[in-house]
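Tutorial handout. Part one gives the primary structure; part two gives the three-dimensional structure as tokens.
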Amino acid sequence: MTEDDIVQFVATLPRATAMMASQATGAPEVAWGDWFFFYDREGETPPDRRFPFGTIVTKDYDGWDTFSQLNRPGIFRLNIAVGRHRFEDLMGYSLAEHAKKQQLFDYTALDRLLPHPVYGSQGWVSILNPGGTTGEQAKSLLTEAHARATERRRP
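Part two.
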């Protein structure tokens, strides 16, 4: 599964927007080249009012997030906002326990569902280079995250 495969999959979800961060989008330079996936009910939500249900990060954010060693050639991380309950189902522990469990994970492992190294305590999971083991699960979790985002945006 490539970054393009994921972006194309997200584009099939109703009213989902995939945006690559760039200078033109007003994103901070450190995020340029990363993808952000939003639900946009009306197609007119201002960028500063959007909250992503998923992202693709392609590089380390020095001083902030280097856990996955994304600066390795060909490595990217899919991040998905699964929420509290789904996180607990997937990881087998509560969000409150995440700080104590964080050191148990190899955040550099490929094709493996992991808590997000920075935002795990907020109900996010991640997969480095989803493939044969996690590709279908990644699509399912993106669909669930999109559905959660849809529900939050209902009038």
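Part three, for discussion. The first strand starts at residue 16 and ends at 20. The chain has one domain: 3-152.
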